[in-house]
Structures
1.
Amino acid sequence: MDMKRDYYEDIELFSSGTILFWTVVLLVALFAAPLILSNYHAYLFNLIMVHVIVAVGLNILVGSTGQIALGHAGFFAIGAYATVLLMTELSIPFFAALIIAAFIAAFFGFILGLPALRLEGPYLAIATLAFGLAIMHIIGHVELFGGRQGLMAPALNIGIPQLGLDWEICSEKGKYYLILSITILMTLFAVNILKTKAGRAFVAIRDSDIAAEVIGINLTIYKTLAFAVSAFYAGVAGGLFAFVLGFFDPFTFHLILSIIFLVMVVVGGLGSVMGSITGAVLITYLMYDLFKNVDEIPVVGDLMVAVSEQWLTVTGMDNFSMIGLGLVMIGIIIFEPLGIFGAWIRVKKYWKTWPF
Amino acid sequence: MAYFSIENLSISFGGLKAVNNISFNVEKNEIFSIIGPNGSGKTTIFNLISGIYHPDAGAIHMEGENLVGKSPDRVARKGIARTFQNIELFANATVMDNLMLGRHIHMKTGIFGGAFMFGKRSPAAREEVKHRERVERIIDFLELQSVRDQFVGSLAYGKRKLVEVGRALALEPKVMLMDEPSAGMNTEEKDDLTIWIGDIREDYGVTILLIEHDMNMIMGISDHVFAMNQGEKITLGTPAEVQKHPEVVKAYLGEEVIS
């Protein structure tokens, strides 16, 4: 064990030189990546990073506070619609619109948190699920939100047009840098929150709400706060997602998306920021890239195309994408219930004590 | 008026009178023990004090203020800490974090302050360090250094009991409710605990309400002992008086069979 000389070392962002080194390597790689990425891959990375933001926020609620949530596509939608509408209807600059939209999402999170004070487990799952569905149907029926036709995202101008400061981002790679910066910032916020008073209170509520109360934690405040924080994250992600897609309609934010978010968190590892990130990266990659291109793999690909044409419905290769994703989820839950992060901890422990 | 008092406290669950018209006064800085057979309503009194249950009738006063009707977190803010009979710790957090949670009511960092904890000079980091110092003193006091960074779930039973005492102490309570702190401890651990309870009273100036079954411990450290059975008071007095009381002997040892 490392010797500690200062209490600050307990809560430092980078608890050791090794971690600092690898973080720097990762950041340099991420910032240099667009030099070799194709436009399609920049788009894929953007999608992954948006999902990372949602997963990090959702994990604060599900993993750290222990409240199940199946309606995060709803907050995601609120973020997307609010950001775009604030920009187009009220000509609010991008960053202000994104932050206001995230706070609107957080407000809805707070509202949804209120019934959570009395609901637990499956009942809470159903309440949040209903919220997600309701949001999808409400925006589908209101003219302002574009109804079922959907909305088109405006040009991504991150300056302040009113002051003559224009800085328009058109390319996928430009968006990549914007989203990367915001993702890093949101991740650091989450790491810090979990190390300080509020984060500890969340964990306390998860482990024993009765003990949490008798040491002075107000359950009403902290449970609704956890909902608000995770909705804020989904709101920020939604605002960015709108510009990644460029065009979206209510069905972009369907129920399956909420479930996929939850899958990312569970597969990655409940209660860990690193787990949320790995979960989001893995699931998004599998969904959007790997299994979409199975037909290009030699032999196996051809075989699958043949099977698909012979036996499966017209959706074709998408069938395999879903089957593959399902198998990965089942595999991880069976063999590593703590998620990818749990596996990482085991490997680390093994090497620390090696060769004993 | 007494420092801490309970007046005519009653609560019933269905037809069962769990606590029936109980009153007692506790002076500042004393160790006040409650004894009685299992199911006699001792823990229910603690749950009433900490606001987990609300009484059907009666009052609970501390420093002249009525605590009845306050939620558990408000009661905690008034300076009442407690430990549980069956250990209620945060099992997936380290010993350090459990004790830091005891500091919760003394910390001010909000969600935004916490999110912006960048660098040693940020307000959140400064507050963290300040409170970690205080917690470290409690870790020293209860000799928990060796398990400081371990997860509570992996600790031995006796250690977990101690962590719970430490968490209650971190709250800087005026009154501490200890529910069978020595249950499941071996003789050596019990002896240490007895000394610590005395020290908590002396050094930290805490008034202690104690529920215990270990008679040696009770008789050794209590100033007053309150004996109860089936929700009713049997007697109240010094340890020596209570020990000789025929009803107490009866409740604990059973009645003599007269043939």
2.
Amino acid sequence: MKKILVIEDNAMVIKSLEFKLKKDGNDVTIAHDGREAMKLLKDNKYDLILTDLMLPFVTGNELISYIKKNTPDTPIIVLSTSTQENIIMDAFNMGVDDFITKPFSPNELSLRVKRLLIKN
Amino acid sequence: MGSNLSQFTEIASWFFLIYGSIIISGYLFTAIYSLIEIRDYKRRNNFEDDIALLQSLNLPAISILAPAFNEGLNIVENVRSLLTINYPSFEIVIINDGSSDNSMELLFAEYELEKKDILYHNFVETKDIKGIYKSKNKAFKNLTVVDKVNGGKADALNTGINICQNSVICCIDVDCILENDAMLKLIKPFLNNGNKVIASGGVIRVANSCVIEDGRIIEVKLPDTFVARVQVLEYFRAFLMGRMAWSRVDGLLLISGAFGMFDKQIVIEAGGYNTNTVGEDMELLVRMRRMMQERDEPYTVGFVPDPLCWTEVPQTWKVLQRQRNRWTRGTAETLWMHKKMMFNPKYKVLGMLSTPFWFFFEWLAPLIEFTGILFFIILFIFGQVSWQIFLTFFLAVYSFAILFSVTALFFEEYSFQQYKKPSYIFRLIGTAMLEPIIYHPVIMWSAVMGNFDLLRGKNSWGVMSRAGLSNPVKKQKK
Amino acid sequence: MFNFENFNFYLFLDSTPWIMKLNIFIALFFISLALIFFISIIWIRIFKIYRNEKKRKQQGLLIDFLNSYLFDEDFNKELEIKNFKENHLKTPLEIKVTIKEILHFHENLKGESARDLEVLFRNLGLVEFTLMDLDDGRWFTTARAINALSELSIEVPNDRIEAYLNESRNEVRQQSQLYFLKLAKEQPLKFLDKTVRPLTTWQQIYIENALKNFYKGPAPDFSQWLDHELTSVVEFSIRMIARYNQFENIPKLIPFLKSKNDTLKCEAINSLTNLEDTGLLELLIPDFSENSRIIKLQILEAVKQLGSYEDLKRVGAQLAPIDWELRIKYHNIEQGFLPEKKELIYSQFMLEKRFEI
């Protein structure tokens, strides 16, 4: 079972991701905001991290930078409303592996998660 | 002597009666206008989603300017919280206004700052800049910290205006707590208008006693202290009733210094914040509006009634008195500097409605009230007080004060209902009943003292009257 | 003062001066108004508590229901929909919350899941309710209903919506425009031909969003609105030509570089820059100095994107020493062209600044 950390503040999106990823046979942990995520990241190791960029307390960017500093090999997928090129470029420059924009297709997301998990 | 006095009493009574009725009808109009405006606002905004906005390339980039003076205690959390604002493109400029505490060191360590050579020009004259810093960490790309020689809030904001990169600026207090969609909401007037929007203001809420964690409101609570609780009512009245109505007739004269958005170019053309007044927030907006009117360019000032910004209000009588004293001076100074506008049809709503209103009801009201009390004391000394008339008069005024507060409370219940606990209503009503007796006299006295202090400090008055619109860019240094 | 024991109200009323009567009358009036408001507050509070509780329950129910419906293969769709319809769609509030929640899900999802939600919306019989809202008569209910229909791509006979295209309320008009846009098979922006009111930035954002995320037909040729009477429509079209990479329309944008209207000129420069039109700078640089501040800034931006250091210097020669804003932009671009001279440029600028103040 792969451990996935989902960092997201929209209750509806959380439920859907949790439902879908658990159905795919993953061990899913949820962080509802950046601060909670930071705490989880300090004490745990994950096989994959799925994060939003606009989060309460701590931004997605700060989380990404923290993950890249401490566990650079953990793959990161960003799930964000932003479609602006510069925001996406910034995320890739910080080392994220994939960028999915909202509205998202849960099936496609599940595929991309699987692909990254196999690669690593 | 006796008949002279009774004639005088008669005239004075009439005067107070007429003045009172004008105030009351003014308030009634305000209430009705506000109700319509709030209802409309609620209806307009109940089906649109923000996704289109967040994905848009057309939203103007914003520079959030936050001056900080000895904020070391919370500055790291406050900055982190500002960074989490929901908006596609923004920068945060923290202006350290010569703090004597360790604010700079804290920011340096937490956000991995390094000195950057950034080109800037003093479009508005300011005190010297010691250094401009950016983060080495890409995650904090949109953070800029400016370290400067102390010069006061207005000067710090002007420094931010000179250095920031974007054409729309949002001036805030670094310790105020913003809702995460604050910028998306505040920018709306800029997008949704045919005329040029030069500024938009938002509602300030009272944060005292609320549960706050890392720069975010977790639970809204009613303040524990009476002083702060009355201000909850005051803010309802001022924002939900007052400014909402003024915004409907496009006559807003004040956008709170704690939270307002401006078109940077217009601010620069108007000369930036005035460092010689304690009412720099009101003065700036009045000057910007005056400039636009004199240029004969169509423009608007927007206002957003959602609760977007929370701030700590004074908890003690002493601090409160100091604040109100300052507000009075700010109002008086601003009105004096722009006295030319008053009753001047050239300035339309501003000249015929807004400035006279501020003059007669905001500035003059406490003085008239104070005179009324002096008058009462004189009558008392001469044994001329008709207690029955006095008591009924007091009852009428008192019941009006209650009605006014209850109406404001009704607006809040109807619109945003931030105070969820049912017991809060009763506490607020209780507060409203005590306010006219306990709180109001203190406020009135602070206002009187503010005017007194203003007259006493003739020097600063003299400097100020020279630094008006006539020579806006090159302002006198203190 | 008062003798309460033998107080006679009528006598009191007769003997009191008019001013007292007036005061008492006013006080009573205010107090009764205050009481009315107070009662309304309590009433609203009770009502809201009751309603929010119901809302919360329904939302909780829906999150589970919708997730199972969307992602659980073992979910007996037919039966569960029937159940939900019978037990949880009885009151107007339940219906309202359900519509809102499905919309909220739909906003965040695309692909197969979004299609599933649209089917669910129909199967729950919510289309009928939305149509009832449409005819409700209050503008905000109508606007909300049109919004729901277009979000979920639910087609209704055209004449049901067409009537609202010329509504006096801005919001209704906007929603009906978006409806036709989102559901169009082709020519999604036909309504622009008939538009007589300026498009606000706000409207432009939503139109663009609907075009990109909802409309599925071929992209319209935006050049057809370049001679529209409204500046805002022309501005929008110029921008869209670049967003949709309509290189064939470049020649039609060139004339706007001579436009007297700064908004259009600025937008044209911006679009041609994004389309990487090679001839652009030659048309702009020679009479750079004759432009307004906004245009000058935009030209500098074009030089940054498309030009060389030589181009930049030609613009620099036309800058006045006191054009601080432009000079800062100029030097920033210069630093980009000459990264090795970054510090030199900075200190040179600061030096000039010091002596000119």
